[in-house]
Write a structure and sequence with these properties.
Oligomer: single chain
CATH superfamily: Outer membrane efflux proteins (OEP)
CATH topology: Outer membrane efflux proteins (OEP)
Distance between the termini: 87 Å
CATH architecture: Up-down Bundle
Length: about 425
Amino acid sequence: MKPHRYPIKLGKLHTIALILALASASALAEPAAAPPGSSLESLLELARSQNPELAASLYEAEAAAERVYPAGALPDPTLRTELRNITNQGMDASPNLLPGRIGSTKYTLIQPVPFWGKRDLKREVAEAEADQARGRATTNWTELAARLKAAYAQYYVLSHSENVTRELLDLAGSLEKITQARYASGLVPQQDVIRAQIEQTGMRSELVAISNERHHAQVKINALLKRPTMAPLAEPERLRTIPSPARLDHAALEERLRARNPQLFVEEARVAAAAKNRELVYKNRYPDFNLGLSPIQTGSRVNEWELMIELNIPLQQESRRSQEREAQAMLAAAESRKEATLNQLTADLAENVSALDNARYTENLTRTSLLPQSELNFKAALASYEIAKVDFATLLDAQRQIRTTKLSLLKTQGEMQFRLAEIERLLGEDL
């Protein structure tokens, strides 16, 4: 029996195996795509392309824009066919339904024609409604961006609060070692060691609570990005720079709000639509027309033509007056709603600018004064405790003051970011 010969030579098998091994190693060497979250800009870009609520509003705006042309177009014409004398009365023929074998056939092409100016007004109403849809889409984006900015700021604050708490937990562990050493030397009571351990237990409990809140912030961000709720996020690296006080001048911001706010744009478009609709309702005092052209076929020839004009008679004056009063009331309501929206927006702007200024002052005071003082106080308390000049309660109070100050600083920075996001939402653009 002859030995079996492989169709591929052994050298070729080695070459193929080497290629496969290199390809596998290359695939393993390729780094996985980093999760978003390190910066706010990456999250905003994802939200713009993936948020379903924003996509729905953009599709609605697109649909509203497509209604403009049909609103100003002429209605479709109608074709009417009349078969006359289908029984062939008075003729030497039997009843028939074929146009060439009956008395005559009348073909009428009818075109409805609205009164002059109505088509333009209908188109202008549709354009104003399309503007409203575009404004609503812009409003949805500004609100989505503001929510994402606030959620990212909260995520940053909680992530860094967790880091601060872990650092201070390590510091509390060092204090416990100091108390144990002094207790072993008979310099302090055992109560100091127990209190140091209680302090660490409380900080661990606080750390669990912060971690839970951080998870909630991560879920909120993923929901805004249309990602799985448990999808990982990168550690937030930085917060946005707060604009200088000169760029937050209230008068200048209010002027920008009046010019750029998307909610005001929607209300202005609503007022424009109501005004055009009122004009259209007034136009209903005049008749609409139907124009008709009719060739008449007898046998196989068309030997007659007719021209027809038809109009409706606007006799129901009381009904039209009610419609006119309704249109006027809707216009007044739209104008009042615009004024109310403007008043609320300017009040919200003033509130957020003032809150941002206060938070800026608090953050600067905490960072430049209170935090260094707390650290100095802790160092002094620690040195005094080591030489038995102060008790352990004083040292714990100093350590707690550092933790409170650092966490308060982070919360104030988050508050500044939240106020900045609200101001940008009101302006309809980033500062």
